[in-house]
Design brief:
InterPro entries: ConA-like_dom_sf, FN3_dom, FN3_sf, Ig-like_dom, Ig-like_dom_sf, Ig-like_fold, Ig_I-set, Ig_sub. This protein is an alpha+beta fold. It is 16% helix and 40% strand. Helix 1 packs parallel to helix 3 and helix 2 runs antiparallel to helix 3. Bound molecules: 2-acetamido-2-deoxy-beta-D-glucopyranose (3 copies).
Length: 400
């Protein structure tokens, strides 16, 4: 059950623990505030029971922009004695953002004594005993990276305070490192390890001592997903030693902007992989082996460390057989025609053709490895040709 009071100047709250069940809460909510510069809220509090038993807990919550209530930024449990104590709140949430301070008294199992708040004031000057945080900036990282928040605060004696990073959903992250910048200023570093999309939220710095609390603005942790193409690359052309592809990387999963596109390819039967940066929509893979299956994938990179996404789906395709078969047929046909018509009885000419073919093979082998496998075809053509011319020779001989 919540007992809510809407009072301000000179407002107070007294909870008599003996009147309530353990766990019951009373809240005193201050009006929503929109402040432009440094200011301080101070108040008096008392947790007291005659018998010395624990009357309960006093929590202070700061809700920003009507968002969810995060964990308390300050709390005290147990009897603090019969004297009123004074504490300060340095809230660094500025116009146009608004915030609301909520005092919450929670009754303990002891069910005796009082939890009281009094004399709440908004001062137009900085707090004296609680450090004020400077503006906390948003942090953007790629998924899988470590994110770092750095909170800088001004105030005396601040390094001995309790310090943590508070996530708006309630999680508290302990400080990784603190260091003094000078005698009135210190920096605290918070690390979130290998963040994922689920870590994306608002975070703020909190410091607490028995004399009060400081709390920064909420800053956003933005987790970017490295980009990955949705579709495999498209095949535009194929030859025995090359593949012409279109990267097909306009539709992506993840976040842009894309600053680097790479083509990664390998023989499906091999173990090596090659990667080439590409800055055109199409790319020609050269010096491939003929009649071989290749797997080609596209890698995309966005700015920042760890910005390269997983490779997209693969295009699996084969290079053509060495040489164009129809050219071989044409070549054989012309060769045979030549032998038939003009060289029926000329062994010397046959010899010349052999030499020409050997030279052609040698040339092909030198210029493009894929034509090397044409050699057997040429030789076959040649054998057929020689055979035929030999037959013709016999026919001629018979005629004589
Ligand atoms: C804060 O500043 C804005 C514009 O700079 C102004 O409109 C607003 O009234 C100021 N608020 C306070 C509380 O001074
Ligand atoms: C204050 O609240 C935190 C949760 O934010 C809790 O872990 C801690 O024990 C509380 N301290 C006291 C003194 O109640
Ligand atoms: C994140 O930090 C941990 C420990 O500090 C380190 O081992 C790890 O390599 C870091 N990860 C990345 C991606 O930098």
């Amino acid at each position: 059950m919540y007992l809510q009071l809407f009072l301000f100047s000179g407002s107070c709250m007294i909870v008599d623990s003996s009147d309530h069940d353990p766990g019951e809460k009373a809240r005193l909510q201050l009006p929503t505030m929109k402040e432009n510069d440094t200011h301080c809220i101070d108040f008096s509090y008392l947790l007291y029971s005659k018998s010395g038993t624990n009357p309960g807990t006093l929590n202070i919550l700061v809700r920003v922009n009507k968002g969810p209530l995060a964990n308390p930024i300050w709390n005290v449990t147990g009897s603090t004695g019969r004297d009123w104590l004074r504490a300060e709140l340095a809230v660094s949430t500025f116009w146009p953002n608004e915030y609301q301070v909520i005092f919450e008294a929670e009754v303990s199992d002891g069910r005796s004594g009082y939890i009281a708040i009094d004399d709440i004031q908004v001062l137009s000057y900085p707090c004296d005993k609680s450090p004020h945080f400077l503006r906390l900036g948003d942090v953007e990282v790629n998924a899988g990276q470590n994110a770092t928040f750095q909170c800088i605060a001004t105030g005396r004696d601040a390094v001995n305070n309790k310090l943590w990073l508070q996530r708006r959903n309630g999680e508290d992250i302990p400080v990784a490192q603190t260091k003094n910048i000078n005698h009135r200023r210190f920096a605290a570093t918070f690390k979130l390890q290998e963040v994922t999309k689920t870590d994306q939220d608002l975070y703020r710095c909190v410091t607490q001592s028995e004399r009060g609390s400081g709390v920064s603005n909420f800053a956003q942790l933005i987790v970017r997903e490295p980009p990955r193409p949705i579709a495999p690359p498209q095949l535009l052309g194929v030859g025995p030693t090359y593949l012409l592809i279109q990267l097909n990387a306009n539709s992506i999963i993840g976040d842009g902007p894309i600053i680097l596109k790479e083509v990664e390819y390998r023989m499906t039967s091999g173990s090596w992989t090659e990667t080439h940066a590409v800055n055109a929509p199409t790319y020609k893979l050269w010096h491939l082996d003929p009649d071989t299956e290749y797997e080609i994938r596209v890698l995309l990179t966005r700015p920042g460390e760890g910005g390269t996404g997983q490779p997209g789906p693969p295009l699996i395709t084969r290079t053509k057989c060495a040489g164009e078969v129809r050219w071989i047929f044409l070549f054989c046909f012309v060769l045979l025609l030549f032998i038939y018509l003009f060289l029926p009885v000329c062994f010397h000419c046959n010899g010349a053709v052999t030499i020409a073919i050997v030279l052609l093979c040698w040339y092909c082998q030198r210029s493009e490895s894929s034509y090397a496998s044409l050699a057997p075809v040429f030789c076959l053509c040649h054998l057929v040709g020689v055979n035929l011319s030999f037959h013709l020779l016999i026919i001629e001989a018979r005629k004589l």
